[in-house]
């Protein structure tokens, strides 16, 4: 198992280096003049150059400075470390809350559907799963946001804000609202929960539909296995058989599928972040590529920043795949022998 | 021989062996929900394909006497009109046309490339397999939405064929992994060994023995690809990338328009109310297509792989 994981880790690092090199070279050869002409602060990094050879040299310097964080701050644009970590923090809160909701509800609904397979509950669950998985997250986000806006304007509903992050006003292209005070201490944490609960619920719905179906399928196989029959024959109550014997053996499939789906969850989180103006990775990425793609503000013209964001997204996906291998080995002892 | 026995014998000889496709088609037809879903998707795709015939004026024809009009069941505009008087039903039809063009073209290219790469990797194994799979790892290391957005920025212009190229460039990898696993399993079976012992070439074994046995997997995976591409395309266009709604409406950018306007002008929804019908109808059409494709994919899987 250790050799297998070491090999997987090496492979993931190799893929990460390959992806970051390919994206860096493509950006460097395409957007060579952008930050050289429009933004010239005193920087460590020179402007991106047009040839693959020069891009390779610059890539090595960028890679070398990633661990110390200099790769984020001393690029050809303004300092990027602070907005980067802020956006990563906001997205992390959204993803963790989403993960908790998905796991809790999928376990409950998937188990009930498998135990009552063929019942009315199972049919209703199946319809819900189809519908939830088919509705794009941004459509669902728009619907939920419209409901909150309606409830706020008509009934003075204040529990969940329609957009924004505590302390950061949801400003738009032509409209800057008055300052939004940032609450302190515990009130800030409560306010963050209030701002992220509906976005997390929006993001969760699609993945609850998908992953509770995975769990239901895996659990049905476990419930028909000989060890389940033996457990029933020993006189154990149904709840104990399902939770201790069948569910535990089905968790490896469920956990692995959920972690391997991180890319899709992350993509959907970007859309939800954009609709609810959470100031997360999605908003930062769109702002950065808008700058490269012809935005008129020099503050946005930072190709290194885009490279940092791409590398982070790849790191997240590869790390999830690696954690998935670890989780399967932990949950299913048979996997450790492979 | 009695006449009854003779009839049974004649009937037994008259029964023709059914191919796997016929058996699978009958299994599929026994699922009414899947048949309805197939009819709905085909109906919507045909309507989208015939958008130019059904609405020859195009999606940009405006009616200044009916600006920002809500949907009317018996009026001239069933889905209502937008803020410049364009019919939302016509725009939704043209939106289906754009989305289906991109999704079908991308799914076709991704399927061809994915099947080729998966067959080569699974059949030859060794270093060929390692190279193909590492390429797949590289492509899928980035989330689909992030990669597509970055690729669109790189290419600068978004046309249906560029979008199809980007999507197929990502989607082939997942399909290749599935096909590779299936081919590696079939390769180890006796009939392939027998074919090799008889002197059949690799190409002949792949074409005559391996491909027919992975037809079901390909059909299920290709159907799933169409749904995934429609979803990612809509998400990317929602961010304002891909095809602009003013150039070619698609189901994604029609929904996105309302958000772009809302966030671009004000955060107060009362300042610019574009009307729910301008995004709900394209959004519902998108959801209906995705639900139907999921139902078809599941039914195909159960019809072609009954043991699964």
Sheet of most strands of chain B? none
| Order of helical and strand elements of chain B | HHHHHHHHHHHHH
Largest interface: A-B, 55 and 44 residues
Number of helices of chain A: 14
What's the alpha carbon Rg of chain A, rounded to whole Å? 24 Å
What's the overall average pLDDT of chain B, rounded? 84
Largest sheet composition of chain A: none
**SS strand fraction of chain A:** under 5%
Q: What does this 3D model show about the protein?
A:
By secondary structure, chain A is mostly helical. Chain A is built from 14 helices and no strands. Chain A has helices at residues 2-30, 34-38, 52-64, 70-73, 81-115, 120-134, 137-155, 186-223, 226-233, 238-260, 262-276, 281-292, 303-331, 333-336. Chain B is built from 13 helices and no strands. At the A-B interface, helix 1, helix 6, helix 7, helix 11 and helix 12 of A face helix 6, helix 7, helix 11, helix 12 and helix 13 of B.
Question: What's this entry about, in short?
Answer:
Chain A is mostly helical. Chain A contains 14 helices and no strands.
């Amino acid at each position: 198992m250790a050799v297998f994981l070491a090999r997987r880790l090496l492979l993931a690092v190799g893929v990460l280096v390959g992806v970051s090199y390919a994206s860096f070279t493509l950006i460097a050869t395409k957007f060579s003049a952008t930050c050289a002409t429009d933004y010239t602060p005193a920087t460590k990094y020179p402007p991106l150059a047009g040839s693959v050879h020069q891009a390779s040299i610059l890539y090595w310097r960028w890679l070398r400075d990633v661990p110390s964080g200099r790769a984020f701050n001393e690029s050809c644009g303004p300092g990027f470390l602070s907005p980067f970590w802020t956006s990563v923090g906001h997205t992390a809160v959204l993803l963790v809350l989403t993960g908790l909701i998905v796991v809790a509800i999928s376990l409950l609904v998937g188990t009930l559907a498998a135990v009552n397979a063929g019942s009315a509950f199972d049919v209703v669950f199946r319809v819900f799963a189809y519908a939830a998985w088919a509705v794009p997250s941004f459509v669902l986000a728009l619907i939920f946001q419209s409901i909150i806006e309606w409830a706020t304007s008509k009934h003075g509903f204040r529990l969940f804000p329609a957009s924004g992050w505590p302390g950061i006003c949801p400003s738009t292209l032509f409209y800057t609202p008055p300052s939004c005070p940032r609450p302190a201490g515990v009130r800030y944490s409560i306010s963050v929960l209030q701002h992220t609960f509906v976005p997390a619920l929006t993001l969760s719905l699609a993945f609850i539909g998908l992953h509770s179906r995975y769990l239901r399928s895996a659990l049905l196989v476990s419930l028909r296995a000989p060890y389940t029959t033996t457990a029933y024959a020993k006189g154990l109550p149904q709840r104990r058989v399902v939770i201790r014997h069948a569910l535990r053996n089905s968790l490896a499939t469920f956990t692995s599928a959920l972690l391997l789906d991180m890319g899709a969850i992350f993509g959907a989180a970007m859309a939800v972040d954009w609709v609810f103006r959470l100031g997360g990775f999605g908003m930062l990425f769109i702002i950065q590529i808008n700058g490269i793609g012809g935005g008129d503000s020099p503050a946005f013209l930072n190709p290194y920043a885009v490279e940092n964001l791409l590398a982070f997204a790849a790191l997240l996906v590869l790390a999830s795949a690696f954690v998935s291998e670890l989780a399967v080995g932990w949950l299913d002892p048979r996997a450790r022998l492979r | 021989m009695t006449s009854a026995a003779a009839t049974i014998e004649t009937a037994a000889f008259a029964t023709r062996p059914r191919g796997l496709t016929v058996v699978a088609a009958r299994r599929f037809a026994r699922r009414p929900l899947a048949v309805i879903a197939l009819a709905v998707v085909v109906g919507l795709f045909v309507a989208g394909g015939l958008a130019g015939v059904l609405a020859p004026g195009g999606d940009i024809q405006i009616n200044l006497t009916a600006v920002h009009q809500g949907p009317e069941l018996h009026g001239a505009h069933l889905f209502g009109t937008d803020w410049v008087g364009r019919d939302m039903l016509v725009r939704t039809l043209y939106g289906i046309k754009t989305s289906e063009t991109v999704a079908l073209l991308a799914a076709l290219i991704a399927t061809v490339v994915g099947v080729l790469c998966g067959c080569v990797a699974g059949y030859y194994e060794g270093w060929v397999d390692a190279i193909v799979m590492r390429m797949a790892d590289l492509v899928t290391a980035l989330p689909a939405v992030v990669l597509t957005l970055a690729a669109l920025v790189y290419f600068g212009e978004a046309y249906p064929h560029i979008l199809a190229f980007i999507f197929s460039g990502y989607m082939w990898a997942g399909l290749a992994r599935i096909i590779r696993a299936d081919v590696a399993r079939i390769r180890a079976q006796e009939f392939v060994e027998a074919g090799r012992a008889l002197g059949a070439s690799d190409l002949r074994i792949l074409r005559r023995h391996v491909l027919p046995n992975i037809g079901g997997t390909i059909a299920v995976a290709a159907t799933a690809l169409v749904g995934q591409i429609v979803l990612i395309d809509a998400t990317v266009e929602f961010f304002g990338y891909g095809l602009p709604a003013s150039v070619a409406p698609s189901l994604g950018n029609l929904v996105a328009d309302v958000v772009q306007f809302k966030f671009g002008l004000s955060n107060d929804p009362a300042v610019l109310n574009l009307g729910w019908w301008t995004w709900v109808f394209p959004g519902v059409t998108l959801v209906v297509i995705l639900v139907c494709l999921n139902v078809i994919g599941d039914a195909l899987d159960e019809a072609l792989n009954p043991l699964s």
